[in-house]
Amino acid sequence: MTDNREAESRRPAGRSLNRRRAEELLGGRRPRPSAAGAAESDDVAALARLLAAAAGPPAGDTAGARARQEEALAAFRAAREAGEHAGVARRQDDWSRRRSVAKAPWTMGSFPSGVRSARAAVGAVVAAVALCGVAVAAGTGALPMPPGPLRPGAVEPGELPVTPSGIVTSVPSGSSSHGAPGRNAPPPAEGDPRTVATREIEALCRDYEHALRAGQVPDVDTLVRLAYEAGEDESVSEYCERLPGTGKGKPGEGKAEGKEPDEKKTGGTEPDKDGPGKPGEDSDEQRSGSGSPGTPAPESTNRGSTGNGQDNGTGNGRNNGNGTGKGQGSEDSGQDGTGSGETTPDESGSPDAPGEPDDSGTDANEGSGSGTSPDEPEPEASGTPSPTS
Amino acid sequence: MQGDRRRAPDGNDGGIGAAVERAQNGDETAFAILYRALHPRLLGYVHGLVGDDAEDVVAEAWLEIARDIGRFHGDGKGFRGWTATIARHRALDHLRRQNSRPRTTLLEQDLLELPSAHDTESQALETLSTEQALELVAALPRDQAEAVLLRVVVGLDGPDAARVLGKRPGAVRTASYRGLKRLARQLRTRNGASGTAGPTVTSSAPRTLEELG
């Protein structure tokens, strides 16, 4: 819907608004004023201010906002307890992708150094995150312990240490089940499956420190994550300093490290590594396996079935954890489980496949050729689905 | 400076991604973090679609997000897109229920009445509130407004914004570019109407846009 007025009143929108600058503006970067002088970039500068204002925090009635947040949290709890979180992804739920760029924080263009007081901004965000924790705790009484999704071997609900303010010092299921070191916990040693997440955190720390050194505001999501990891007793800076892999990072080193998790994920090292660990990455795993009609090497096929195995494992684990009474849930994953567990050889034609082919899925898979090499069902695929039964 | 709330489109989303993972495992704190991080963005976007009912619509969207988060597959970046899609559907439902048209009706006269129009341009914009800025963006033709809001407010990159809108990336890129040009023109008009620096700005830079754009 190109407006006619646009064509007709095509007064130049200032010298400096071109597609490149528009893209910069849309991407959240403030283009540098042109060398020729500020007057030329009036439009861009005005737009930058406008867009920054638009992206700013909206004023709102805090009481209403809090009530709404509580509603959302209550819905989250209800869904968790009803086992709905074990739901199967529909096509519209698959946003996984193969863009390693997205995983490398330091490749992003941060805000230029014109930003005043990066540290003040950091403090504000960290404080906000801390407040968030308190607010949650306050709103819900104690911090909720997921009754269901705990995996075998995970911390029992009663054992979770809770600080006076009600903030859980170790994340209920997250820390034990997928790798990220628990809050405040120093990262585990090399060779541990958790190192992937640890490296990720180290990389975030480097990103954070690099931004500070450069006088930039670190990415807000980095801050949220690091503040979460650091917990409330420690500042993000202190936490990062404590990490072995940070502080001394050379520039550029981060990039290599940050990508590593990805390579492991796709290339697949030991199945065990991802196996027990990262349900969140199942999507990726699963896609690289079952999404592609056969991957070249037998090993890759294994990888695929491993992915399925994990997925089912997680699903079942959740359901069992939720209580055996949930017929609905276990039906779901039971189906799923048998589907992929027994039919690995024809996985390419499995019911999973139609759901999988999507733009992001093909990215990775196209490259890997399509020699169908049905391998035996990975023991793990059938083994994991019912770890808790 | 509010700009730091936004992230570069292809930037790191490690924090969100990790929180998503944990929330999918039942971690309510992680879900609260997600809520805090994304709610303002979704609100800004939905406000551009449904106006003052945005709070209610986004609350509805969050109920759905809370229920379906286990289904989501992807990283933190994808999660933004996923939530934006849900919010958009709820907003469109809302509009359908209302049988009303999306708000693209703000007239340029209204823009002129925004506060501080008599100031110099920079002062006027410096004081532009988030709400006023969102009004300006929301007043664009709908496709342009949505494209700009998804990019700038929700923080999506071009391809993700396109997926949310169900369009081709090129179309969305063009829409957002047109939106920005139109905004720039409106800002100048505003400024020109105030009788200060407008004329010089608008007349001093002939032709270059066509060449560059």
UniProtKB/TrEMBL annotation, chain A:
Composition skew (Gly residues), residue ranges? 306-328
Q: Could you list this entry's UniProt keywords, alphabetically sorted.
A: Membrane, Transmembrane, Transmembrane helix
The answer on whether this UniProt entry bears the keyword ATP-binding reads no
Please give the start and end residues of each transmembrane region.
Answer: 120-143
Query: Where along the chain is composition biased (Basic and acidic residues)?
Result: 1-11, 250-287
What are the start and end residues of every segment in region (Disordered)?
Answer: 1-40, 76-102, 142-195, 233-389
Give yes or no: UniProt keyword Metal-binding: no
Q: Where is the composition biased (Polar residues)?
A: 166-178, 362-373
Q: What is this protein called?
A: Uncharacterized protein
TrEMBL record, chain B:
Q: What spans are recorded as compositionally biased (Polar residues)?
A: 189-206
Cite the residue spans of the region called Disordered. Answer: 187-213
Q: Which Gene3D superfamilies does this entry report, sorted A to Z?
A: 1.10.1740.10, Winged helix-like DNA-binding domain superfamily/Winged helix DNA-binding domain
List each copy of the RNA polymerase sigma-70 region domain by range: 34-100
Q: Where are the transmembrane segments?
A: none
Domain (RNA polymerase sigma factor 70 region 4 type) ranges: 131-183
UniProtKB keywords? Sigma factor, Transcription, Transcription regulation
Instruction: Check the record and name the InterPro entries matching this protein.
Output: RNA_pol_sigma-70-like (IPR039425), RNA_pol_sigma-70_dom (IPR014284), RNA_pol_sigma70_r2 (IPR007627), RNA_pol_sigma70_r4_t2 (IPR013249), RNA_pol_sigma_r2 (IPR013325), RNA_pol_sigma_r3/r4-like (IPR013324), WH-like_DNA-bd_sf (IPR036388)
Keyword Metal-binding recorded: no
Which Pfam family, any one of them, does this sequence belong to? Sigma70_r2
Report the family membership: Belongs to the sigma-70 factor family. ECF subfamily.
Supply the name of the protein: RNA polymerase sigma factor
Per the UniProt entry, what species is this protein from, by scientific name? Streptomyces meridianus
Lineage runs: Bacteria, Bacillati, Actinomycetota, Actinomycetes, Kitasatosporales
